[in-house]
Amino acid sequence: MATTLVKTDFNFPGQTAVYHGKVRDVYTINDDIMVMIATDRISAFDVILPKGIPYKGQVLNQIAGYFLDATADIVPNWKLAQPDPMVTVGYKCEGFRVEMIIRGYLTGSAWREYQAGARTLCGVALPDGMKENERFPEPIITPTTKADAGHDENISREEIIAQGLVSKEDYETMERYTRALFKRGTEMAADKGLILVDTKYEFGKRDGKVVLIDEIHTPDSSRYFYADGYMERFEKGLPQRQLSKEFVRQWLIDNGFMGKEGQTVPEMTDQFCNEVSDRYIELYEHVTGRKFEKAPEQNLEARIESNVLSCLDQLAR
């Protein structure tokens, strides 16, 4: 199996903070610039799985950069440069403690709740009689609180504003941006024969303006179906062909793991990790229309450090 990057421990000039997330390691420089390294870690059910996935960090980073550039006319974003296949450098923003999830279809966790009898989701009423993978009449926004550890929690628009997590004005801006980004993402996916099923966006503030941060439209933050055969499969009640992390979640569920206390992550063989890697690369090529070029895997840490140092030196001039 190819070498994977599952841990980083850099000390860049001017470094003022470091944060190790589920997948990304974020280094803050002079309290103003952020170096975001997309590792090969993979998480599901808010648990970091024990083995890395080859080239996953590169896939996520390059898809995110592709879509940040393609949506910069809709909303300002944090990106300044991508000095390495696994790294994005950008402005530090004050992140909101809310993630904006938008769903075009009833699937995944929303379907599991619906199947259990729920007819409202984050304050949004859901019609009776819907089937798995059915398209909503209009996309629905189902926010969650952003947890530093543990599970994110569903929350309604009204609760967010009432609790002062986000001001009414900023939340309405985030909603407007969320719908516009999803529309653009849906159109771009359709051009490639895909359906953007659902996704999440994160926003922050810089200089008083709402700014798009983190990644967008990647397989870690989004779900895609193949458009070809969607309706036939839906009408027959068959599972959709999809490009997303949902197949990893399903594999875990099938092997008795849903992140609950006392459950053990099933063994991740090299073959399984390589299959996951192939799915990530397949998604990259489908959503971008570009051939995936595997970056050299030797001396990953040294390569990243050299590229980041060069980038920071240029930004400081």
Summarize the structure.
By secondary structure, the protein is of the alpha+beta class. The chain is 33% helix and 27% strand.
Detailed description of the structure:
The protein is an alpha+beta fold and 317 residues long. It has helices spanning 56-70, 108-115, 157-162, 168-191, 230-236, 246-254, 270-288, 300-316, and strands at residues 15-20, 24-29, 33-38, 43-44, 47-48, 79-84, 87-91, 94-106, 120-121, 124-125, 134-141, 144-145, 194-206, 209-213, 222-226, 242-244. The longest helix is centred in the middle third of the chain and has 24 residues, at 168-191. It is globular, with a radius of gyration of 19 Å.
Low-confidence stretches: none
Helix proportion of residues, in percent?
25-40%
Cα(first) to Cα(last) distance is 41 Å
Decide which structural class fits the backbone. alpha+beta
List the helices and strands and how they pair.
Layout: E1 15-20, E2 24-29, E3 33-38, E4 43-44, E5 47-48, H1 56-70, E6 79-84, E7 87-91, E8 94-106, H2 108-115, E9 120-121, E10 124-125, E11 134-141, E12 144-145, H3 157-162, H4 168-191, E13 194-206, E14 209-213, E15 222-226, H5 230-236, E16 242-244, H6 246-254, H7 270-288, H8 300-316
Main attributes of the structure:
317 residues, alpha+beta, seven-stranded antiparallel beta sheet, five-stranded antiparallel beta sheet
